[in-house]
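BUG-326 | component: ligand-complex export | severity: low

The export step for biotinyl-5-AMP jobs runs without errors, but we want the raw record kept on the ticket for reference. Input record follows.
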Amino acid sequence: MSNAMNTKSLILQQLKNATDYISGEEISNQLNISRTAVWKHIQELKKAGYNINSYTKKGYILTSSPDSIANEEITPNLKTAQFGSSYIYHHSIDSTNISAKFLAEQGAKEGTVVSAEEQTKGKGRLGRLWQSPVGQGLYFSIIVRPQIPVYLAPQITLVVASVIAKVLNEKYNLHAVIKWPNDILVDSKKLAGILVEMSSDIDRINYAVLGIGINVNNPEAAFTKTDTKYQPTSMFNELKTKINRSELLTTLLAELEIAYHTFIESGFNTFKPIWESYAFSINKQIQVTTANQSLTGTLTGIDESGALLLEINGEKHTIHSGEIIL
Ligand code: BT5
């Protein structure tokens, strides 16, 4: 965080903690900056959407904060040691995954998070697009450097999916399920997607970028129905109430950090039952398309590597990559 950002954040914290007006003089004394500097930072906060009333004799009072995931709203509220300790926020960006990959190549530390209010080229799998309208969803990417065998990398997507499903169910009361491998659905509609991208040698992962997109406060009309396969939904659509995105993001970062460390230390076995407990259509008939065929059978679970297990006429099939058709 730059010094200017730090000071702005500190002023904001003072305003948030104050129960009444706080004078410019008091802020300037506490932070050891001039009153003009205080005034300038206040103007910047106002521009960023904070409503701050000022009276010459009394000072400043914060009357409302924007629903923002800028540093000022995230950094002071982080409950993590690593995830988000370097937090790079953009108002608008092509894709947080593209940016995170670039930073990872430059040596960015594990746990670096890139987020944005809007993505102009949000990425899905296989060159698909992720709609990322400004200020409505969460779009963020976490850089990790897992020391695990390359063939186990697909498990990372499943760990992330388990965490998102758990948080949505337990903290937000949403009946969210995981559609293998990377979709989070509510009521058969897509609420969130995960895109894990990685760089590796034959025997070693250099880094992985965990890209997460969640529809949070999008009104239904916000989605362009580009693809009829997926009916989108948002937390707001389902719960009929606005969600505080910064709180959701800091909660997810905390839960993801714990899960990631458990996964690295103890392996996927801890997550397999959690994943299966949230799995969409478990023990039901599903149709799966892979690169060269379409299969119909009963989804019985996943194996240790994270591959999908499908039973067709009593025979077990293992599917490493593909898509479940709704
Ligand atoms: C995904 O791909 O679901 C992965 C999405 C990952 C997005 C995050 S946002 C932060 C990070 N930075 C990025 O650039 N990406 C990641 P896939 O399974 O391929 O699904 C893509 C399909 O979902 C599209 O073809 C549409 O049908 C549908 N879709 C697109 N935008 C959507 C949205 N906002 N909500 C629901 N469905 C959507």
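Assignee comment: Attached the raw record above. Residues 272 and 302 are 7 Å apart (CA to CA).
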